[in-house]
Design a protein that fits this description.
two-stranded parallel ribbon; 387 residues; 67% helix; single chain; four-stranded antiparallel beta sheet; alpha+beta
Length: 387
């Protein structure tokens, strides 16, 4: 009755969850893309202090006569600057962009960890269900063989024999269904890991621990706050654009005739915005955007708090079911299957009672595994609370 499972027959190396997570984090192309986006924003920080191009000029003017009565040839160098506080505001905005990109990368990383962990546990559960179903299938093959012999001796009717055959076929179909589901989970895990080589997983089903994190420490909350910081920084940038630009110009003039001299000069200037309605509109729009972002942050934070409470209540309920099964349910299920099998083989109970008892025990194991999947989902949602 204890047939070897699929994993026991495989000849591949066993892969632990930590190994699967490391491979996924190294290979996953989505994580790589968000990592590059963060690198892009980090590189752009230095672009905040961007000076205009330096203007180099040369000119001559017949009206510009030197003391030797010949026109001057004038070379000049000029440079324009934004008001210094604008560069500071731009720098803060770039840093806010980078912080937002980093938290977005963290969100995606947590999501990948959740998906890999959940799929790994699902694969473990499917393997356990496969093992249970194989045991039941083997049991029904033995029962069918015995029932066929008893039918030929006239001990049971044809209807009872056909009922056993029908049930055996149902178990076989269920076994095939579990095999397909297991294969789908394995393919999904490989996709998340971007990993093509064959491997097996640990047979010891993981029961995750709960990490009770504060809302304020979650990457999604930090992402919302970084959005707010970016909105505030953008307002400062738009306000500083109303300030005047500065310019400096140095020039040198001379000619190439006798008694020529060098004439130096410089000028400084400011560019004052006389028409600033458009810029005022941009400032107003930035303030509206900041208010919208602030309201969205408050709304999302409240939703996260509500979701955390709901998940914690669900986690408590599922935890009780898991603990009960380990303390009582597992032993009870095994005992029911053993007693039902012996009773049927010894003729103490008929097939109907045997089937009912076996189905009850099997349902206890199956319900536990289903509860374990739900427990894993809820625990991961709490540990990596997000939107």
């Amino acid at each position: 009755l204890l047939l070897p499972s699929f994993d026991a027959l495989a000849q591949n190396n066993e892969m632990k969850l930590d190994e699967a997570l490391n491979i996924a984090l190294q290979n996953n192309k989505e994580i790589r893309a968000y990592s590059l986006k963060a690198d892009e924003q980090k590189t752009l920080i230095s672009s905040a202090v961007a000076l205009d191009k330096t203007n180099i000029t040369y000119g001559t003017d017949q009206n510009n006569i030197a003391e030797n009565n010949h026109p001057l040839h004038v070379w000049g160098v000029s440079q324009s600057f934004s008001f210094p506080t604008l560069y500071s505001a731009e720098l803060k905005a770039r840093k806010a962009e980078f912080n937002r990109a980093e938290t977005e990368l963290k969100i995606r990383t947590d999501e990948l960890i959740k998906q890999v962990t959940l799929t790994y546990v699902e694969l473990q559960v499917m393997s356990e269900k496969l093992s249970i179903c194989q045991r039941i299938d083997s049991l029904y093959l033995i029962i069918l063989k015995s029932a066929t012999l008893r039918n030929s001796n006239g001990d049971i009717s044809n209807l009872e024999l056909l009922t056993i055959e029908a049930r055996q076929q149902q178990i076989k179909q269920q076994l095939n269904h579990i095999k397909y589901s297991r294969e789908n989970s394995l393919n999904r895990l490989k996709t998340l890991m971007c990993y093509d080589s064959a491997f097996t997983i640990s047979r010891d089903i993981l029961i995750l621990d709960l990490t009770d994190n504060d809302i304020e420490s979650t990457p999604y909350y930090m992402y919302l706050r970084n959005q707010e910081a970016l909105s505030i920084a953008n307002i400062a940038v738009e306000k500083n654009k109303l300030l005047p630009d500065l310019s400096v110009n140095y020039f040198l003039g001379t000619n190439f005739f006798s008694d020529a001299r060098y004439y130096q000069g410089f000028e400084v200037g400011i560019s004052v915005p006389l028409f600033f309605n458009a810029q005022k509109s941009r400032i107003k729009a930035s303030k509206i955007a900041m208010e919208a972002t602030s309201n969205f942050t408050e709304y999302e934070t409240e939703l996260m708090r509500l979701r955390q409470k709901e998940l914690l209540n669900m986690h408590l309920k599922l935890k009780e079911l898991i603990v009960y099964y380990h303390e009582h349910g597992n032993t009870l299920s095994d005992e029911v299957i053993r007693a039902a099998r012996l009773g049927f083989e010894n003729g103490e109970i008929d097939f109907q009672k045997f089937a009912n008892s076996t189905e009850t025990a099997l349902r206890m194991k199956s319900d536990y595994l289903d509860n374990l999947i739900e427990y894993t989902k809820v625990t991961l949602e709490i540990n990596y609370l997000s939107k």
